[in-house]
Amino acid sequence: MTSLVDPRRAYVSVMRTIRGALQRTGALKLLDARTDRRWAHWARSQFAIYDFEDLAALDSPWWSYDSIDEVDAWLGDRTDIRAFEWGSGASTIWLLKRVDELISIEHDAEFANSVRDISGVGENLLTIEPTTSSNPAIPSGRKGHDGLDFSDYVNAIDRFDGSFDLICIDGRARTDCLRKGLERLAPGGIVVFDNSDRERYASALNDNELQIETHRSWAPALPTKSSTSIVRPIVSSTKGAS
C-alpha cells in the first residue's frame, strides 16, 4: 500500500532539517545578515514556514512581496493611521511598527497568545473563536471548518467606533470580512486581501463596485508565487451631482 504524503508538510519538514544544519554551521547567520536584499529575505524565510517567531523576526507580513511594497509606499509619511486586521501573525508585528493604532482579531486562542507574547499588541488583539452550528450564518470555506459559525469573528469590528484607514483580511470567512470591512473603511483607505487567487474568494472580488489591484509575486515563507490584492471602493464622479 502506497502512503500519501502532504507535499506542504513534507516541504516544511525538509526546510526545518536544512535550517538545523545551517544553524549548526553558522551559515544561517550569514543569510540573516543579507536579508536587506529581496532574494536573501525570501531564501531565509523558507526556513520560517509555520514558525511565527522566526518569520516575525524578518519584519514582513505573509503577503506577496509586491503587495508589501505597495502598502509600505501607501503608508509613506501618513500619520494617524488606524488599522484593523482579521487574522493575526507576522503582519501584526509589521503593522505595529508602521501605524498609529492596530486592532487585530484572531480565531485561534493558542496562536493569539503567541502573537501577544511576541508582538506586545496587548488587549488590542481579541480572540474571537467560532461557535458550533448545524447551519452556520457565516461559515468558513477552509477544509475542516464545517459546522463552525464565524459570525462573532466577522462582526467583531462593530465593537469599535469610527472608521479604519487600512483593513487587512488574512483570516477566516474572508468574503464576509471584506463585505463588513468595506462598510467601515475611511475615505481614501485600502483593504489588503491576501490569497486573492483562491477560487472561493472570486465572487466577492469580482464586484464591479470595487477597484482591485492584484499583486502576484514571490512571498515570504512560500516556495511558490502568491497573490495579494489591494481593494478600494470605486467612488463615482457623479455622486452628488445635480
What does this structure look like?
This protein is α/β, with parallel strands linked by helices and 242 residues long. It folds into two domains: 9-50; 65-233, 3-Layer(aba) Sandwich (Rossmann fold), CATH 3.40.50.150. Helices cover 35% and strands 21% of the residues. The protein contains ten helices and nine strands. Mean pLDDT is 92; it is low at 238-242.
Number of separate helices: 10
Number of domains: 2
| Cα Rg | 19 Å
For the record, give the distance between the C-alpha atoms at the N and C termini, rounded to a whole number: 74 Å
Name the poorly predicted regions. 238-242
Helix percentage range: 25-40%
Shape by Cα distribution: globular
CATH level-four homologous superfamily name of the largest domain? Vaccinia Virus protein VP39
The secondary-structure class comes to alpha/beta
Note the run of SSEs as H and E.
HHHHHEHEHEEEHEHEHEE
Q: Numbering strands along the chain, what is their spatial order in the largest sheet?
A: 3-2-1-6-7-9-8
Question: Could you name the CATH class of the largest domain?
Answer: Alpha Beta
Give descriptors for this structure:
alpha/beta, 2 domains, seven-stranded mixed β-sheet, two-stranded antiparallel ribbon, 35% helix, 21% strand, globular
Short structural summary:
The chain has 2 domains: 9-50; 65-233, 3-Layer(aba) Sandwich (Rossmann fold). The chain contains 10 helices and 9 strands.
